[in-house]
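[step 3/7] inverse_fold.run input=structure_tokens len=175
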């Protein structure tokens, strides 16, 4: 009986000490701001139609074609200091810094979709912040604002004919 009580006491001490053991710490930071905008009603979900291009436009790796503008429109902004920009969220449509071709019917091969900011600089979708992605940033200085971006074809090799499709989620953020 004494052995059983001793065993239970030791087991309780071991169990409680392992509950307090840890290998590291995760520190989480953030900021909530009153400087917010709303996406203009009816423009939350955008469809960008890239024009048709010939395979000769995408006949080698790193060639691009058909940069097509799209705009995220914001309203009811609270002007003040700071900037607003879009953060393109991680997801299964992202491959490296670009969007993979997810067309399911007759997909073009060796073609991805690249996003560009308003200065035609590539947005790096592999980055974990809008600033690191090189997203378009505008000062919050009016009640209505526009964030301009571009989408274009990007060849990873000599393209073959076919369909191109992809999508990405975004969140409006402030810095």
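[step 3/7] decode complete -> sequence:
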């Amino acid at each position: 009986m004494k052995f059983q009580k001793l065993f239970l006491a030791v087991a309780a001490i071991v169990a409680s000490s392992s509950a307090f053991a840890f290998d590291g710490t995760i520190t989480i930071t953030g900021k909530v701001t009153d400087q917010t905008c709303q996406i203009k009603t009816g423009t939350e979900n955008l469809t960008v139609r890239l024009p048709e291009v010939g395979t000769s436009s995408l006949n080698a790796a790193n060639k691009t074609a058909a940069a097509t503008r799209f705009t995220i429109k914001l309203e009811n902004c609270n002007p003040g200091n700071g900037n607003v920009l879009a953060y393109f969220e991680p997801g299964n449509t992202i491959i490296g810094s670009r969007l993979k071709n997810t067309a399911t019917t007759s997909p073009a091969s060796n073609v991805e979709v690249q996003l560009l900011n308003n200065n035609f600089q590539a947005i790096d979708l592999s980055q974990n912040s809008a600033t690191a992605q090189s997203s378009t940033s505008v000062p919050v200085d009016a009640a209505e604002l526009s964030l301009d971006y571009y989408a274009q074809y990007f060849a990873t090799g000599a393209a073959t004919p076919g369909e191109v499709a992809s999508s990405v989620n975004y969140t409006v953020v402030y810095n």
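[step 4/7] annotate
The chain has two helices and nine strands.
The radius of gyration is 25 Å.
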